[in-house]
Amino acid sequence: MCFTYKLNKSAKAIEERFVAEVVHKQGNMFFEQPQGSFNGFIHPQMPVITSKEPNLIQFFEWGLIPYWAKDKNFQNNTLNARLENISEKPSFKGCINNRCLIPADGFFEWQWLDNKGKNKQKYLLDFPNHEIFAFAGLWSTWKDKQTGILLNTFSIITTEANELLSIIHNSKKRMPVIIKKDNEKDWLNEGRIVLWNDDLIATKI
To answer: Of 23, 69, 153, 187, which cross-links 74 as Cys (Cβ 3.0–4.6 Å)?
Structure first.
């Protein structure tokens, strides 16, 4: 699964990479105080490029909330969406056409060193020169019935691990779906997924 990833690039670098404009980049704490990594269970606001507005880089909260959810507690269950059954799961089937790209420059997985996972080795997965890439994702808009506030949220799509991640993420053997750069627009336009896995580099942390 993918519950922690990093993005340490500037707004300008992200804009140039995706040919899109960052919304509210002036005074944005994300860029003023970059962090080494982002934990999904804290539900941070992260840069996202949606199928609806592909020329904008907006900030959505990690942990998709379907429109019918009663409250935000639902988010812990939807940090990831399994590619194999997103059209069947109630959480995602209502927004399978709400596709998005989630910029990143690395993600983290933990290798179990014993059968119960009491001892683990942390790995950083990224590409040569720490270049920016994009996870495939789904997004949704949820209305808080108590406040009336609209909240945009997203989930990272995962798939079966490739050979490298099967060794590292050896407990569940999953990995995030990373879209090849040349196929990112196709993904947003409801095209097929073209994975970019072969160039991943694993580094012990």
So the answer is: 69
Q: How confident is the model at residue 34 (pLDDT cuts 50, 70, 90)?
A: low
Q: What's the chain's average pLDDT?
A: 92
Size of the chain, expressed as the number of residues it contains: 205
The label of the residue with tokens 């990224």 reads: 126
Tens of pLDDT, residue by residue over 51-107, are 999 999 999 999 999 999 998 988 999 999 999 999 999 999 899 999 999 999 999
Alpha carbons 186 and 69: distance in angstroms, whole number: 30
pLDDT mean over 167-182 = 93
Query: What is the DSSP secondary-structure string of the chain?
Result: ---EEE----HHHHHHHHT-EETT-TT-HHHHS--S-EEGGG--EEEEEESS-TTEEEEEEES---TT-SSGGGGGG-SEEEGGGTTTSTTTGGGTT-EEEEEESEEEEEEESSTTSSSEEEEEEE-GGG--EEEEEEEEEEE-TTT--EEEEEEEEEEE--HHHHHHSTTT-EEE-BB-GGGHHHHHTT----B--TT-EEEE-
The pTM score is 0.94
- Letter for the amino acid at 173? K
